[in-house]
Amino acid sequence: MSIPSHQLDAFLAVVRTGSFTRAAEGLHVTQPALSHRIRELETRLATRVLIRRTTGVELTETGRRLFRYCQTREGLEQEVLAEILPARGESGFVTVAAFSSVARSCVLPALAPAIRSRSGLRFRLRVAEVAELPELLDRGEADLVVTYEPFVRDGLEVAALGSEVNVLVESTLENATRDVHLDHGPDDHFTEGFYDRTGGFVPPLKRSYLHDIYGVLDGASAGLGRAVVPLHLLTPAHRLKRVPGSAALTSPVSLCAYRDVCRLGTRRLVWDALLKGVPALLERNASGLTLLEAAS
Fold this sequence. Notes:
Helix content is about 45%, strand content about 20%. By secondary structure, the protein is of the alpha/beta class.
């Protein structure tokens, strides 16, 4: 049994847009025609692949497997076209998602040599909160993700990249604010998790928000509050010291992708580049600790 391309295209469009209406517009068909294609697909497979919700669509387990197949099919097509039509100068499009403290500092420099060596390799580096990364991978909005402890999924390939060490810091300025904690935004609970996991006393948290880890570092350095920051991002330009008596939190960093997706040539190239380059960049933890000790 084979699955007609128009049914797979309809399914892929719905998943990626999250809407039957937008998918129909993108495929230039009516919404009833699109719905008919999805029903035909589910009849062929004898199971549901999509569940309509008021907030969008949800994939069933079969739908998730089918979506990964569609990604693999699409990736193989890109690889074949790159070989047959090298003049196009394209060798595939890869999206990597990562949390903010490793995206610019580790992921981008680790990928740079591979990107320079593979003419036409197009990529997107997407920065997201750790809690968002599994969903980005499941929805196909990322081919690979760099996250903390890996989440559990059937068919997921996971590789250890090293560890990130986070410490509680404050500015070396004498009049620095010490009763405020800095985070990315209201939904960022990393500071509370830090206190919880290190077994320390959790103070009543007054919080200010500075968008991402670089804003948090700048804010802490300027004396706007205390912050939990990764050692590998610290430089002599940061006027920071470790809060006396505070513990360190070591979190494993992992690379995750669905096995049938990351086996493809271009994605495997990116996978190997991250596996080779990120660990050494994370190992700068020791130098960050030295800077804090000198400031204290």
